[in-house]
Fold:
Amino acid sequence: MKLRYIPLGGLGEVGRNMWALEWDDQVLVVDSGLMFPREDMPGVDLVIPDISYLLRKDKKVLGIVLTHGHEDHIGALPFVLKRLNVPVYGSRLTLGLVKPKLKEHRILREADLREVRMGDRFQLGPFRVELIAVCHSIPDAAALAIKTPAGVVVYTGDFKLDDDPPWGRPTDLARLAQIGREGVLLLLSDSTNAEREGHSGSERDLIEPFGRIFRDAPSRIVVASFASNIHRIQQLITLAEEFERRVVVAGRSLQTNVKTAQELGFLRVPQGMMVPLKQVDSVTPARLLLLMAGSQGEPMSSLSRYANRSHPATVVREGDWVVISATPIPGNETLVNRTINNLYKHGGEVFYSTTAKVHVSGHAYRDEIKVMLETVKPRFFIPVHGEYRQLLHNSRIALAGGIRKENLRIVEDGQVVLLTPESIELGEQVPAGYVFVDGLGIGDVEQVVLRDRTQLAADGMVIVTIGLDRSSGELRSGPELISRGFMEEAYSAEVLEEARRAVVADLARFQGEPEPALVRETAHDAVQRVIWRRTKRQPMVIPMLTDW
Amino acid sequence: MKLRYIPLGGLGEVGRNMWALEWDDQVLVVDSGLMFPREDMPGVDLVIPDISYLLRKDKKVLGIVLTHGHEDHIGALPFVLKRLNVPVYGSRLTLGLVKPKLKEHRILREADLREVRMGDRFQLGPFRVELIAVCHSIPDAAALAIKTPAGVVVYTGDFKLDDDPPWGRPTDLARLAQIGREGVLLLLSDSTNAEREGHSGSERDLIEPFGRIFRDAPSRIVVASFASNIHRIQQLITLAEEFERRVVVAGRSLQTNVKTAQELGFLRVPQGMMVPLKQVDSVTPARLLLLMAGSQGEPMSSLSRYANRSHPATVVREGDWVVISATPIPGNETLVNRTINNLYKHGGEVFYSTTAKVHVSGHAYRDEIKVMLETVKPRFFIPVHGEYRQLLHNSRIALAGGIRKENLRIVEDGQVVLLTPESIELGEQVPAGYVFVDGLGIGDVEQVVLRDRTQLAADGMVIVTIGLDRSSGELRSGPELISRGFMEEAYSAEVLEEARRAVVADLARFQGEPEPALVRETAHDAVQRVIWRRTKRQPMVIPMLTDW
Structure:
């Protein structure tokens, strides 16, 4: 029998991380992440993995193991559990971040959440799973060592190496080395920063620059960071304590995470330091630290609304020092830039990645990836968690580190890999496409709808209503044309009138009883032809036929 | 009388550079650039400056002076000249790049293009204009010194400092220093890289890395760069000559520019080196350099199509070495990343800004901006060409360089600035908004159309057709509902049927002769209500009423 590795997301494209190991039709699932929609997915709220493979009747899903609490690893869990209510295993904080999501989806009560600690081992069918502490931009993150009948599979999770992090634990290289010595069949290794030379740096590198900001800021300090970066938030709260500033938290995700992290002991906030958002303006400016969500410039986030002066609680003022403690994710640059422009325009001083050292990455750079590889010493290697370019660069690190070419596979979502203690080979392709979440709908938006939305966005639409006598073919009402998203009304009237006359003329050629489909097509073509000639645009033309 | 500086574009936002000086209602215009649409301008092809101020009856526009041939400085010229046919002044290459555009718009014959050389001075009404050579990422680029009755205005244009560029001229600091010594009233200074410490580097820095690529490439070399970066292209052609590779050019813009630059003596291509694109596969792979447009990952560009294997002439193959010799403009990162992924997937080796030194910027970094300031020694200072954050950083460089705070203004598009030899102050606001070009239309797409397009893109639309008897109010046909871009048909049927029943029920409440507007509103609200409750989506709902 062969061990099956099944990537369901996160390979060849970032986000919606999810994969599975299968032995004898028994399946262990790791992570259930979501992806935020790309620009070619208009109107889509979230993108989740396709789990139809897991729902097959011949498969027995034993449980889902979560590595850490980032959206791209846990965000799809509510949607998955609704269709596949299996036990969920994760660390204390990870489950703490999962719970509010399940509650929002009203499935917390039915969910079977099982907390595991770093170092714990538990058996799931043929799999023995161990969580190993890793350092990442969220506390309580884990790598996994999974003992299978074919050998041990190690998944790095999202990780970096930091020997002496100011908060939280370092990556447990000692344990990984021990597992490595005992023999590892396969390493699945985080590729996010495989293009980047050197080392990702330490949270410790930020103590000095943040300290300087706290020392010198003349008025309010505002910091936007990822809502789940609890260590960063701890650093800021510690500085606030030292410099005697009160702390206000703005943004729902940040408030939820701060509360959860405090309750679970991952964040220490001195008594009486927190001030509710509503009372933000009662704090002396030079005594205030305002923590905000929105480091990616998301238009509805606290930071964006604070920056464009539309936030109900407080807005940017002359003298505020604002730190954007994150790097823009590709695609978000223009949103972040817009936020920075707004902050400057209204008199804020801004610290951001182009001009100041205010962020370090949570993902290993090349040197760290090398150390992980040398520590785990796997027989086979699959780069995971990245776009193709990142997977490729990670595979090159592995090749340079002594992995033989035939022992390495770069695969993309849905490509099954088969393993025995001595061999690695490609299996079949399984479904691993996108499932779109739009409003309450899951999977009811697919390619046809997106194609229509894209066309509607580009040139708008024109509706042609026609009332035809069913027996004589005589025009009884219309054609009437109206448009939306096409041209401003002052300009469209003439074009639409010409199109209307073209429809009348073309319909006049029919004799006797008209075929509705042909009438619709004729009207459609006449309108499209006139509009293209006059404007070189292609709005969606929709003929509506009424029978008299 | 006061000298009026009128920014019509390029301040507070990148692109569509255009500004004017005015004395006694006589106006000198500088540049006529376009901007590529932002993601919140769906379906818009181009964004050009609003020139309604220049079209005012009391203004006499003397001419347009162009600084260099980049789209963001010349791209709107055809649209401007159609409404304002005044003489256009520019350097040889700049006008050479303008001509094909005017030809395409069929206005080349009427256009009054006047070539000027670096160092030439010419009088336009009260203005005496001199072009001064600057180094930039396009040859034959100029700064301007404009002698006005109030004093001399110096515009840096887009510039960098490179004492010894391998091709083209260095920035003429000697002449700028001389003008500086004679006294400069106002400096308008390029802010693009004002956030960046140090120096932008030299085209010379690329000789070594490009040389290594040519030395080591086992098969075809493909380089994508900006189509107007003639010096970069010259460097590559020189290397191709040295390493005995033939050259093929792919991409219309690149082909046009290479042809123009050759004809005008800005690009030297050895006889017999060029091979037509159609014959690209007849060249031995190790003897080929393929120059391509599309360094920003534009989906229809040669590079994108070569990378996703849809280009009709040639596609990426195992062993191709591909250089993306540009940095992604903010907003284009995901497109560029997609292209890189495709290249790697199909076996290409890729060199890009994250992993290799294959590009230097054409815009001055902080140290160069400082040198320009110290050379020109202006009394007043206005940072130009940049988003607000960049303007602000440039103004800080000026403050640090000795410009007094009251002698400096950060202004945005449309904000007139008034100058005398002794004073600078803000004047009124003039129109300087967006004008959108969509297909053949100019200005017929504005906020209403964009808002509709945005809504259509997000959730699609639902059309409700109703035939009502005008006198009795009786329903004679429909309601019939159809949707586009809303939900896949298999899912929408049930929701639309429920909405239809809601319309029938709500209309049944009317008695007697119905008011059409009220019928429409009732149908609209019933459909919207049901859809929101069932899906939490807000498609555009369009009621169409037919009278019987």
User: Anything to note?
Assistant: The two ends of chain A are 69 Å apart (CA to CA). Residues 127 and 148 of chain A are 5 Å apart (CA to CA). The mean pLDDT of chain A is 94. The longest strand of chain A covers residues 475-484.
